[in-house]
Amino acid sequence: MPVSTLDPKTALLIIDLQKGIVTFPTAHPVGPVVQHAAALAEAFRRHGLPVVLVNVTGGAPGRAEQARKLDALPADWAELVPELKQQPQDHLVSKRTWGAFTGTGLDAYLKNLGVTQLVIGGVSTSIGVESTARQAYEHGFNVTLALDAMTDTNAEAHENSVTRIFPRLGERGNSQEIIALLDSSRQ
């Protein structure tokens, strides 16, 4: 379903747009993804709505066949990309799992603000973005996925999330549509 409405208290979640991750090869060029995410952040800030910037600082405990070693990473690996222009009022969530809700207090933070809807973008579509969107849906938030503000390291995984999973979790749109809806609903 295309994005149709934004609740009065909507927050933006940008997932893992950090220096160490944006260097990975992606299905879509990461530059425009970062630009669209930055435009969304600017629009949410302009309207006084919460912006949550999420980074990953380690891995979850447990064994996996494809576990990525996060030991001995460069010092700036978890730093957010500068294009996001992190502001003092932005809420930073540092996670160690795929989803941004697990063990971070994000649900309580958002509900304390009265947030009922989340616009989500970032990388990777099939991992951090999808996991966070699933968790948001399970926590009772209305979910909107900013499709041009996300990409994945695997084109098939990205396509699966966008076409099969996301329609079951919420609405989808591009950043311009979301910003236009935000601007028109806040006049």
From TrEMBL:
Q: Which Gene3D superfamilies match?
A: Isochorismatase-like
Say if the entry is tagged with keyword Phosphoprotein. no
Keywords on this record?
A: Hydrolase
Q: Which SUPFAM superfamilies match?
A: Isochorismatase-like hydrolases (SSF52499)
According to the entry, every stretch annotated as the Isochorismatase-like domain falls at 10-171
**What InterPro entries does the database record attribute to this sequence?**
Isochorismatase-like_dom, Isochorismatase-like_hydrls, Isochorismatase-like_sf
> Which PANTHER family would you find in this protein's record?
ISOCHORISMATASE FAMILY PROTEIN YECD (PTHR43540:SF7), PEROXYUREIDOACRYLATE/UREIDOACRYLATE AMIDOHYDROLASE-RELATED (PTHR43540)
Name listed for the protein in its UniProt record: Isochorismatase family protein
Q: Which organism is it from?
A: Collimonas pratensis
